[in-house]
Design goal:
heterodimer, A: mainly beta, 4-stranded antiparallel β-sheet, 0% helix, B: mainly beta, 6-stranded mixed β-sheet
Chain lengths: 120, 117
Amino acid sequence: GAGVSQSPRYKVAKRGQDVALRCDPISGHVSLFWYQQALGQGPEFLTYFQNEAQLDKSGLPSDRFFAERPEGSVSTLKIQRTQQEDSAVYLCASSLVAPRYTPSADQPQHFGDGTRLSIL
Amino acid sequence: AQTVTQSQPEMSVQEAETVTLSCTYDTSENNYYLFWYKQPPSRQMILVIRQEAYKQQNATENRFSVNFQKAAKSFSLKISDSQLGDTAMYFCASAEWTAGTASKLTFGTGTRLQVTL
């Protein structure tokens, strides 16, 4: 498709279960981001991939959160032993990379519709 | 680290009127971008307008324009001729430019805009 696709759109899980959220970026976009958006808040950065390499995972809140992008396209965000505070919308975004020598060409991020995760 | 502050949790404007949403930010970088995103109930973040920090000219996009005050670290969004479809959450965001990589966005807490008849 033309845009970023995320699935499932809604996910309900019991506390302690593991969940996996999928992101299919725009074709040709080598950069992929995951953000977490709590209710009534702005999105917060979780992790960033350039192709298959995870270049920044500083935003992952705990070692229960794990993300992968093995072939440099589709990405999966996995949350193990879910807790109620994990309830949020998880947004995926993709973009091109900035050119090496000039800041003149910005590369905006294109977002998916998100997955709303509810932990009971 | 960058921070973005939106001090207006909610705003209301009548259809066809003009409204301004406020945003301040803090960064130690020289090369950065500023953005306004719109998030309707469908949840998808839609880019409204963007500004390169090194450009002095304020960005405009149809009915949307910004007032970028670099020294004051202020980046407000003006919506002219407001339409019912403009009703949404609006997020101000910043991103540092780094050669060869994409940059993570730092978002504010958002302003809920309601356009009324």
